[in-house]
Design a protein that fits this description.
The structure is a homodimer. Chain A is α/β, with parallel strands linked by helices. Chain A contains eleven helices and eleven strands.
Chain lengths: 281, 281
């Protein structure tokens, strides 16, 4: 009980360096008013929560390379938006003996890293931390509609120009368009990551949305819905940024949000980067 | 009962034109020895199975444009590998009132089309019809390993060259690579469509597979597994063709396979085509 009081009270920077991973995470959770779903995936995935924190890293997904960079930077608490072990629940039973999993887990143990996932609460935060980071990164804050966090009225453009603009701003290699690149649009909805068909169709069915900008989408679902909509002459299009490209800025924003909370601990954003390469010419 | 006898017996071509959609499908099913899963998705999705068949169309997915081309060609039985209504089970309840769904359903009704899905049994056929079509289309028959339908030992190449070769042969706009495009490879596994992480990892964990060629894959699962494997120096890579690109040749092969079964009925392959456009330069 005494610890809890100390953590939430004022604390000199020198002493704050000794916070454990558990204490850091408790303090983060206390900043977000949304109720915690008991089934949340926002849990420790590896390492000892009682480890004193030397530095915090935020990232879209703690790839093997991100972990190596964190170690180089002297940080030992990794806050990752997406899973460490290649499935939403970070189940590891089916990966026992798999050489990629075993080497990653071995690296985490050897370097005494602590991994915590910050997915649900970062999305449920008001405003959604991922949407805020994306909006900042693409400079759409001034185009946001009143009372709608993820809908924007842009200066008139085409779907193709919009995609090219996003590619430049987000430094992406692979963006895919469904529908007519020449379609003129102004009303855009953004859904980060893999939102699922129900959410995607809810946006696309709106009369005041012509183009949905999303992360990834199953190719036999919303992708084909939009293809049919376009073939029917409806003014609808879909831009798939890729999951990482659509969400990574939200974890850069997370680092900016964390720094004032932990003035005595270095907080570093390490981008996972886009997983895809294009086919060489 | 008499009808059944007639259908499976010899029948002059002129009379065969009067087969109903149900009779055509019964005859197709009778060609495949694999047992039918009672939960199969291979069912009629729209139209009256008692409709006399004027022509058969095969396609990867019966998009709105494919339906229009089928009508132009005078065909009324559409055999589609993937769903008509944007979800695996072709459920339509959640789409009631949706303008894209309503217009597609209206078009099907207006033109008295009959839609049947040929997914499970075409895959369960020995050999898998989709894998056969792909192998033909890319010319890998001579490289196939004995007793392994989807594993090939190619002349040495790099991942990037292999992807470029597949792009040319399959006439694709968007292919994505995970891992090092310069990795030298010879052992390739192919998994059509969206096979799921379990199947994908089973291939990638093999010592005699360096590169998996697949349709689509969730970006927080196998995609990140391969990225980590490559970062660990393991000789693994993933080429994502896209769902349509990976499976469409299997439905062209389906048309070739159907023609001798129904000599009196025109059988036409209509490609759905790749749903994605690249971002304009």
């Amino acid at each position: 009980m005494i610890l809890a009081v100390v953590v939430t009270g004022a604390w000199p920077a020198s002493a704050q360096k000794q916070l454990t991973a558990q204490q850091v995470i408790d303090k983060i959770k206390a900043q977000i008013s949304a109720p915690v779903n008991p089934d949340t995936v926002d849990t420790f995935k590896a390492g000892d929560p009682n480890t004193p924190v030397t530095g915090i890293v935020t990232t879209f997904l703690d790839t093997y390379e991100v972990l190596q960079e964190a170690v180089s930077a002297g940080a030992n608490l990794i806050i990752t938006h997406e899973p460490t072990f290649y499935n939403h629940r970070d189940e590891t039973g089916f990966l026992k003996g798999d050489p990629v999993f075993e080497q990653k887990m071995g690296y985490i143990r050897e370097h005494h890293l602590v991994i915590w996932r910050f997915h649900d609460q970062w999305h449920w935060r008001k405003p959604d931390g991922i949407i805020e980071g994306f909006t900042d990164a693409v400079g759409w804050g001034k185009y946001r509609r009143p009372y709608e966090q993820n809908a924007f009225t842009l200066p008139p453009t085409t779907v193709g120009q919009l995609a090219a603009d996003l590619r430049a701003k987000l430094n992406s290699r692979v963006i895919r368009i469904v529908g007519d690149p020449l379609l003129r649009v102004t009303d855009v909805a953004y859904l980060p990551g893999a939102s699922g068909e129900d959410n995607e169709l809810k946006e696309l069915e709106r009369d005041d949305v012509q183009v949905l900008v999303a992360g990834e989408s199953r190719e036999w679902e919303t992708v084909e819905y939009v293809r049919d909509a376009a073939a029917q002459g409806k003014r609808k299009a879909l831009i798939l940024l890729g999951h990482e490209v659509s969400e990574e800025p939200g974890m850069e924003y997370c680092a900016r949000w964390l720094r004032p909370l932990f003035p005595g601990i270095p907080v570093t954003f390490i981008p996972a980067g886009e997983p895809f390469q294009r086919v060489p010419r």
